[in-house]
Structures are given as C-alpha cells and as structure tokens.
Amino acid sequence: MCYQPVVTRDQILITIRKAINSCSCPIKQLGRFFEELEGIFREKGIFGHAKRTQKYMTILYDEMMRDGVYPAEMSEFIRERLALSVALHDIGKIETPDEILNKREVLTKHEKNIIKNHTKFWENWLHESYRPEELDFLKRTVQIAESHHEKWDGTGGPKGLKGSEIPLAGRMATVVDVYDALTSTRTYKGHFTHKEACERIKADSGTYFDPAVVEIFIKNNEKFKDAHVSFLRNIHLSQLAPHECRVL
Fold first, then answer.
1. What architecture does CATH give domain 9-244?
2. What is the pTM of this model?
C-alpha cells in the first residue's frame, strides 16, 4: 500500500519560516513557532506528548544544572530553546499516515519502517541559510529528533550511536520521551503507573539510558510525577486525540 502524508515537509518548512520571521525576539520567535504547529500536532495526536515532554525536559534540565551533571555540555544549552526543541522531537510523525499511527493491530515491517523514518524529518534542512539564532535552535532540534531513539549501549537507532557519541540533548530527551510513553495510553497498549515507569527506566540504566541522567531522574521523580498529574488535571481532554486521553 502506498501511503500519502497528510502534511508535507514543505508545508512545515513554510510554517517554520513564517513563525521564525514573525518578530525580532529569538525566544518569542521560537514560542510562536510552536504555537503555529499546535493545530497540526492535535490533528496528528502528538500535541499532548509534545507538551508533556517539554515540561519534563525543563525539570530535568533544572535538576542536572543544580547537581552539576555534565557541566561543560549543559552550559551550552539555553533552557527555553532546549524545551522547545524536545517538544518537536516527534515532528516527523506529521508525515506518518494516521492509519499507521493509530493502528491497533501489530504493524507490518513496512509500516514499522515508515514510523522509524520520523527521526529523519529534519534531514538536510541545515544546509539552508539561517540567521545565527535560528541555526542554534534548529541544530539542537535536529540533534534531539535524530537521536532520541539511540540507546546508551549502542543497540538503538537510526545510527547505532553508543554512550557519549549520542548528543547529551538526545540522551536527556530519551528519558523524558520514554517516561511519557510508558505513562500514556496508546492505541496499542495501556499505561504504566508512575512507580512502574520509574522502575522500568531505572532497570534500563546503562543499557537503554545514560546512567547519570537516570540518576537525576530517579532522585527527582516526585517532581516528574507532580507535573504528570498536574497536566492531566488541567488540560481539556477535548484538545487531545482519543488515544492520548489517559487515566491517573
């Protein structure tokens, strides 16, 4: 079967340009950029996931800075831009047909490969001409999008990077992405409790995840739990796709 994306890459690029050029303040530009994409995110069922990982990344960033973990690399991050970048880690799924994203049955090999391609969404975009503040944001966004499925032991993808070969932003994104995936109900699975998700992540420290990042996550897990519960209590469920609605 030949699948046609609902939204094309060119359409998203136009949206990016429109948002980035909408005002002179870099932070406001990036905020506007995310707002411009919210409607499409909701339609594709990834809006809630994007907003939650954005919040979780902010918590993780704050606690890693507080404990002095990877100080040299962390000093290169700008908090607001890092959070916005992780919110866009699954933007490639915009090109994935709904019948695959929302399928309840086991995916075929062909369908799995289509989903895997979402990490390549930003491929070749950095060859275009950007202003310095745009390029800084896009580089981080590309790093996270391309590496959030890599694993610490080198068994992930798409490049099979291992340990510190994986960009720190990607290693951080992997933890918050998996935490939200585990605690969310999807078309193909139920949800884990916060405690179960933490146990799973801790068990995979050193294989799936960077041990130093997991240590900070576990140490501050109650803050992630509070954010998780707060999101569910305050968001209007009508804003989410049916498969994003979860039970506490």
1. Orthogonal Bundle (1.10)
2. 0.80
